């Protein structure tokens, strides 16, 4: 009798899958046998794309934190308890925040690489005989390093505005702090007649050295992050060993007073340990 809820959930999921596949088969048949030039064929094709994996993939890529809720539902069915559902609901915003922070970090790195490419392209065009404003317009269009301030910077370069100030405004975006050096080079070259291309070469070399130093430091800390991941997976290994020995660890954890106490204390210790280990590793990543 204890396995009836789980069997019922599995049967309900199988029935929903069959109904969905039947609907997909009908839509596929309409698409295959419809007139290619008719409006019905276009509607059927659009419906088929919406219900296919390609239609759902963009939604899943943007909301990967909801996979925590899927895992929580599976654990709730296996352990016949609502505690995994509560934990999954609490984990969704936390994981979403972490994923968004990782996306912002990747965007900062992409922008930093674009600034390095901008300096190299701009120096090359200046040596080819182009004026600074023309070279900046071409290099900015190919690298995309100026971000949302690209129009303002290019307008200042085209109509004789304050290009260094526009570059400093563009440098406020994440990862674009190298544009401050570009603004300084531009100001010195315009006011003092110094070699603009030579200054850009030195700036590019400095930015590349800083990026390489950051990558070397990240490679050295990869082992520490692997240790944190192993520590995070140890509870899962313990549950798997319990199942292998013929025990029912989820029943003990979710349906006995001693198990609930161990679950609460172990969860707090696990969260505190992961937070502390991640904090130590991140402090080593700071320049």
Topology:
Blueprint: H1 4-33, H2 39-51, H3 53-62, H4 67-79, H5 83-127, H6 132-143, H7 150-159, H8 163-170, H9 179-192, H10 196-220, H11 222-244, H12 249-255, H13 257-285
Helix pairs in contact: 1-2, 4-5, 5-6, 5-10, 6-7, 7-8, 8-9, 9-10, 11-13, 12-13
Describe, in plain words, how this protein is organized in 3D.
Keywords: Cell membrane, Membrane, Transmembrane, Transmembrane helix. By secondary structure, the protein is mainly alpha-helical. The chain has a domain at 111-206. Helices cover 83% and strands 0% of the residues. The chain has 13 helices and no strands. The chain has helices at residues 4-33, 39-51, 53-62, 67-79, 83-127, 132-143, 150-159, 163-170, 179-192, 196-220, 222-244, 249-255, 257-285. α5 (83-127) runs antiparallel to α6 (132-143). The longest helix has 45 residues, at 83-127. The chain is elongated, with a radius of gyration of 28 Å. It starts with a helix and ends with a helix. Mean pLDDT is 78; it is low at 1-10 and 15-24.
Structural class: mainly alpha
**Main sheet makeup:** none
Overall strand count: 0
Point out poorly predicted stretches.
1-10, 15-24
Strand residue content: under 5%
Q: Roughly what is the average pLDDT, rounded to an integer?
A: 78
Number of helices: 13
Tell me the Rg in angstroms: 28 Å
Terminal Cα separation, in Å?
60 Å
- Helix percent band: over 70%
- Which word captures the global form? elongated
Sequence of secondary-structure elements = HHHHHHHHHHHHH
